[in-house]
């Protein structure tokens, strides 16, 4: 699984927005976090489409969390930013969809699938609220 700059910037932006009382515009967030405005705008729009952020237009517009920080998990943030599932390996989700058409004979798929389930479960347990409060993870 690859966490790109999009994931990093999404998380940093959400942390910044969560700590504000009013919607934050892209210019403010971009300047405060030293992130490219155009790249950040795309990320935040994806977050709004995923229901993580609310977007407001106009002079007092900007972005605000659509949910409480403890209701937004890391898996949702990453998938929203990356626009794809949090894949540990580049393979199909089932043996039946194997691109090499040898899924029924594959010896590694089941091992990687177990790992994928564990990673997904772990990412679902970490919330934006946990990260903001620096809750220790066990």
TrEMBL record:
- Protein name according to UniProt: BadM/Rrf2 family transcriptional regulator
* Cross-referenced InterPro entries: Tscrpt_reg_Rrf2 (IPR000944), WH-like_DNA-bd_sf (IPR036388), WH_DNA-bd_sf (IPR036390)
> Could you state one GO cellular component term attached to this entry?
cytosol
Coiled-coil regions listed in the entry:
none
Q: Which GO terms describe its molecular function?
A: DNA-binding transcription factor activity
> What organism is recorded for this protein?
Campylobacter geochelonis
- What PANTHER family does this protein map onto? HTH-TYPE TRANSCRIPTIONAL REGULATOR YWGB-RELATED (PTHR33221:SF15), WINGED HELIX-TURN-HELIX TRANSCRIPTIONAL REGULATOR, RRF2 FAMILY (PTHR33221)
**Highest taxon of the source?**
Bacteria
**Cited NCBIfam families:** rrf2_super (TIGR00738)
């Amino acid at each position: 699984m690859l966490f790109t700059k999009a994931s990093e910037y999404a998380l940093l932006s959400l942390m910044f927005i969560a700590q504000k009382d009013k919607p934050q515009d892209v210019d403010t967030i971009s300047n405060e976090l030293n992130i490219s405005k155009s790249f950040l705008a795309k990320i935040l729009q994806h977050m709004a489409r995923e229901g993580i952020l609310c977007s407001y237009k106009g002079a007092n517009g900007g972005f605000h969390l659509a949910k409480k920080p403890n209701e937004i998990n890391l898996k949702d943030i990453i998938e929203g930013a990356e626009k794809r599932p949090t894949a540990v390996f580049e393979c199909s989700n089932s043996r039946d969809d194997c691109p090499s058409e040898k899924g029924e004979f594959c010896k590694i798929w089941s091992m990687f699938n177990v790992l994928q389930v564990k990673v997904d479960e772990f990412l679902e347990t970490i919330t934006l609220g946990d990260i903001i409060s620096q809750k220790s993870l066990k």
